[in-house]
Every structure is written in structure tokens, then in C-alpha cells.
Specification:
The chain has about 280 residues and is of the alpha/beta class. It has ten helices and seven strands.
Length: about 280
């Protein structure tokens, strides 16, 4: 813990998913939906000798942030690497669809996604992929009404299909410890070789996909410190900004043009990658 932090303002990263949800909501307003007491578990893990968890690694709650109705979904990175299967994915999709329905009925409701996930759970690959597709569809539907804020802190990061889900959100907030990418470091090392991408080289990994790099490349909206107050204040700030005029995912063509001009014959350094990305972002402004 940072010695300058008070007990109340301790590390956000070191909290459990349930504590993180409680932290971002107004005090006393958290009402958990599909809680562990409902005992809705994955039907597939036990068949493979894996101990299931009563919340399947995802916490869903509704409450208020600055008095505004909000639904919050948080993935528990310590359970199965934050992977999403049929049940956990359906819980997030259902929460987002609830918010869409509330907005269509004239009751404004925003959403916050606290993402600590390696992506789809391999033991439930097809069902997990289907659930992530439903999550992405619900994000696009909800962001027309109210902001959908993604919070990527650490230490698992946000990879696979859920990295695409994050990119579809209205805003992305990251800490220095957060990592965001389509493939995780171990997957890239396995496919490209350790000489190309050494997953154990932490400074290199964070220089490529860490929060500071992603922010300075213009791919995320905010880069915050690891404290409960920073996370809460950043979420409040972006919810107050409302729906952006143009969402990040609607600017893809500018980044694509920058990538097409990239010479892939040479090994690109993190700084050079940042310049390419900034060029694409700037061309839309």
C-alpha cells in the first residue's frame, strides 16, 4: 500500500470484485443481483473436475453513483483467471440489457464494467463466445442512451473478446498496473516465440500494453493511480460527461489507415507504435 494513502483510500487493485463494486457505488446503495445465495453455478466446470464458485466469478449489482441509477459488473480475476463462461457472461449481458430496458422505459441507468479477465473460459469456449457477443451487443445498445464506462486496473488485465468489449464502451479508465490487448503476453509468446515477445519481461510488457502506454497512445481516456478515490472519481467524471459525440469504435478507419502505412519488416519499438497510434487518433480530430 502507498504510505501516503489513508486506510479508507487504500489500493483499488487489491480489493475483491465485490469490494470494488461497493467502492464505486454510493455508500449504502449496493444491491447485488444474482448473488452467491442464488447458487447459480457453471454446469460445465464440475464435469471437468474444476470446483465451481457460487457467483461464477462475476459480481452484479445496482445502486447509485452521485444519485444516478447505475448497474455495475465486476469480474473476479482470482477465479479461473477472470475467464468468462456461459453463466458469468450471461450475468454481465443480463445486467446491461436491464439497463437498456430501464432507459427505454424512461428511467436513465448507466453501466460500469470492472474488467479483470483473460477472455473466454476455454472449458466453455463456444458458450463463452456467445455470451461475449451478447455483452457487446448490449453495450452498443446501451451507449446510445447512457455512458458505459470500462475500468481496467490489474493485475490480470483485460484480454480476448472482452478487450473488444472494453473498446466498445463509451470510456475506458486504466491504472499503471492495468494491461489491455487482444491477446495476453503468454499467448503471444507461445505463437511468436520468446525471442519476439518475452512474457516474463515485465517492463517490456507494460511498455507495450500497460495503462500508461495505452493512455499516451490515445487508446484510452484516463490514466489513474491505484487508489479507491481515484477509481471512484474517474468513474464519476465520465458518467457526468454523458454519451460522447463519437464513440471510439466509430473511429476505426483512421487507425486502420495508419496501420496500413506501417512497415512490418522491421521490429517496432513501443515509442514508434505509440506514434503510429497517435497519428491515427489525431487524423480524426
Amino acid at each position: 500500500m502507498n504510505s501516503t494513502m489513508t486506510t479508507k483510500d487504500s489500493s483499488f487493485i487489491e480489493q475483491s470484485a465485490r469490494q470494488r463494486v461497493k467502492n464505486v457505488l454510493d455508500e449504502g446503495t449496493m444491491r447485488e443481483l444474482i448473488s452467491p445465495f442464488d447458487r447459480i453455478t457453471s454446469p460445465w466446470l464440475a464435469k471437468q473436475g474444476i470446483v465451481s464458485q457460487f457467483d461464477d466469478g462475476v459480481v452484479i449489482a445496482r445502486g447509485t453513483i452521485n444519485g444516478e441509477q447505475t448497474v455495475v459488473a465486476a469480474i473476479e480475476g482470482s477465479f479461473q483467471g477472470g475467464s468468462l463462461g456461459e453463466v458469468s457472461g450471461a450475468k454481465i449481458a443480463g445486467a446491461l440489457e436491464l439497463a437498456v430496458e430501464e432507459n427505454e422505459n424512461g428511467n436513465p441507468m448507466s453501466a460500469v464494467l470492472i474488467l479483470e479477465t483473460g477472455g473466454v473460459r476455454l472449458q466453455e469456449a463456444n458458450l463463452g463466445l456467445a455470451a461475449i457477443a451478447e455483452i457487446q451487443s448490449a453495450i452498443v445498445a446501451l451507449r446510445r442512451h447512457r455512458p458505459v464506462v470500462a475500468l481496467v486496473t490489474g493485475p490480470v488485465g483485460c484480454f480476448g473478446g472482452m478487450s473488444i468489449s472494453a473498446a466498445l464502451c463509451s470510456y475506458i479508465i486504466m491504472t499503471r498496473e492495468g494491461r489491455l490487448g487482444l491477446n495476453g503476453p503468454l499467448v503471444i509468446e507461445q505463437e511468436a516465440g520468446i525471442a519476439e515477445y518475452n512474457a516474463s519481461d515485465r517492463p517490456f510488457i507494460w511498455s507495450v500494453i500497460g495503462g500508461k502506454q495505452r493512455f499516451e497512445s490515445g487508446l484510452v481516456d484516463s490514466y489513474i493511480s491505484d487508489s479507491q478515490s481515484s477509481a471512484r472519481e474517474a468513474v464519476e467524471q465520465y458518467l457526468n460527461q454523458g454519451v460522447p459525440t463519437i464513440h471510439r469504435s466509430e473511429k476505426y478507419s483512421d487507425l486502420l489507415e495508419a496501420f496500413l502505412r506501417l512497415d512490418t519488416q522491421d521490429h517496432i519499438a513501443p515509442h514508434d507504435a505509440q506514434q503510429v497510434l497517435l497519428e491515427g487518433v489525431a487524423s480524426h480530430e
